[in-house]
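Q: I'm writing a short methods note and want an example of a predicted protein-small molecule complex. Could you take the sequence and the SMILES for fe (ii) ion and return the bound structure as tokens? Please keep the output block clean; save any remarks for afterwards.
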Amino acid sequence: MDSEAILSNAVNLSQMVERHLRSDEVWGRIPELRRSYQTDDYAELPAFMPEEIHATALKELEALFAEQAQRRDLIIKQSGNTPRKYSNIDRDALTQGSTVVPEIFRSTALYELLEAIVGEKVLPVPYVPEEYIAARLHKAGDVHGWHWDDYTWALVWIFKMPDEDNGGSLEYVKGVPWDQDNPRVEEFVSAGPVIRRHPAVGNAYLLKADTALHRVSTLRYDAERMIVCFSFATVADLEREVDHESMEALYPHSHERHTTGP
Ligand SMILES: O=C(O)CCC(=O)C(=O)O
Ligand SMILES: [Fe+2]
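A: Understood, no commentary inside the block.
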């Protein structure tokens, strides 16, 4: 059987994901990842998945972006009127069109790994459209502007990344909570320090995204940048009222399908 045939079997895929995420190779990095997370609110996991799983996910994403990507060009009020200029794929399209992405999100081994890094309980987000999304920046001027995430953690898996001097870097100011009525983005960014990271293809980074004001810097030239972003919650996240207005603007169909009442 070739790797694709192996992966077409859901049981095998699930076992491969679990086995990898429980491997000594991955767990051997925990002390370093913990330290990085504690000091920087950021930890980069090298080669997040085995090569054949990464390649299968990439193929699935390429097909989804070719067939059903939504181009966005919006200003988001809740994060201080910052731009979103890119193409995205919502959670439901990923659930339909990807075997790999949903499997990773429901992997118990992933939650155990993340808990070992952050030192507390990690839970699926309680709002389905935010479980996982995919985003692609490709044209000069594309940007995922300054914002905070609705839930505590983002795990961003990198599929395509431009050269560093072309933009597409993660930039963030850590430890600044989001006040939706008065986001003060410019103030936080100019006070800094702005930390810049340019994660490598195949890696995934974990960010404390509710208190790290973050963005993906503007592409200077046409180039490909493609990611999947998974979101996770704390116990406290489940107890507070969370406003999903920016998600509604970026993923209107998914929001409508998974929201009841007014
Ligand atoms: O693309 C990235 O690296 C960050 C994505 C992100 O911040 C988000 O989807 O909320
Ligand atoms: Fe984000």
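A: Remarks, as requested: The mean pLDDT is 94. The pocket of fe (ii) ion (ligand 2) is lined by residues 147, 149, 154, 209, 214 (CB under 6 Å).
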